[in-house]
Amino acid sequence: MVIVVGSGAGGATVARELAKNNIEVVIIEKGPFVDSKDAFKCYDPSPSGVDLLKTSCVGGSTLVSAGNAVRVLEDDLKDYGINITGELDEIEKELKVKPLPKTHIGRGTQLIIDTAYSLGLPIRRMPKFINPDKCKPCGKCSFGCPRDAKWSAKKFIEDAVDYGAEIIYETEVKNLIIKDDRIMGVKTLNGSLYDEIVVIAAGAVGTPRILLRSGISAGKTFFMDTFITVGGILEDIRFKEEVQMNALIEIDDFILAPHFSTLIAKELKRKGYSEKDIIGLMVKIADEAKGEVNLKEIFKENTLEDIRLLARGSAVAGSILSNIGVEASTIVSTHPRGAHPGGTAPIGEVVDENLETRIKGLYIADASVLPKAPGAPPILTIMALALRLAKHIIKEEIRR
Predict the structure, then answer these.
(1) For a tag site, which of 29, 106, 131, 313 has the least CB within 10 Å?
(2) Rounded CA gap, 397 and 183, in Å?
(3) pTM
(4) For every residue of 25-43, which 3-state class applies, written as one string?
């Protein structure tokens, strides 16, 4: 049996692949099992001093993702002896990753695309794992898809259960059971489970805390793909109702994507403007891993380089908005937030090239292992690493 802790992109992928290959799997999830449309109820409270977006539920934060499918860190991982090109290809094929058809490009997004082209910016339509036949643009991706048009890790969990896996939800793993530097099982608030292979995929905050409570060093570095949203007023654009992040501008260590922010809306509504007139652009950077996750708090420093990248991205966003007709006096920005926490148990430090820790049989399969910030949605890369890990475990099981 293999115990998988966490049911997000990494945990769901490894659990499904193992179960499909007739390996007994038990999945333990801290959060509840909810309908996709109710995922917004599962956002975790942001820790003091850090505005961090993540959820606890079956399927994890994939339920509130924008459905973006970008290949990140593919070349960087090769420096660590990890080639995930084949796994990325497999996942893209199964999830039918591709840009949405033009019928799903809203007026605001099209204005941004056309203006970016005219400014000579490298823009393309965002690759998505969204079924256009099911998708009716509503702008609710980040709240949970009301039509289940978007792939989420919950689908892989359901597949794993169909293959024979067991899922235990609303159960938090507190400690690992370790003897003579070998994993023996896990302790939860509801009792202990025992096995000699455990895969931790509890997220870049949950995973290091499990490790720390078990005497394993982790959490000394931390990134979160820091982002801001810049927005303003364009009369009757109705941008809020569009598929969000439906285009992608890639510049050095940051990206821009069309994005409606409720924080922008609150500020502009206080000034007397209407939500139907708001349009915005997200600026997301590959921030430096100058942070820490410990048992009590999360600390994140915005370095000078982080601030420089945010400033550059904001300038580009402001230029695009001005060129599509947004009145400059209405343009405002959110404070920095985090969307993709990671780097708290990095490859080369806490895990090896097979994602195994110094504890024999203890693996990690989430964004904790990423050696640097991707600066773009990492779901595909997390899944590819998890699929590669599952193949490794299957080989090891065959040898036993």
Answers:
(1) 131
(2) 15
(3) 0.96
(4) EEEECCCCCCCHHHHHHHE
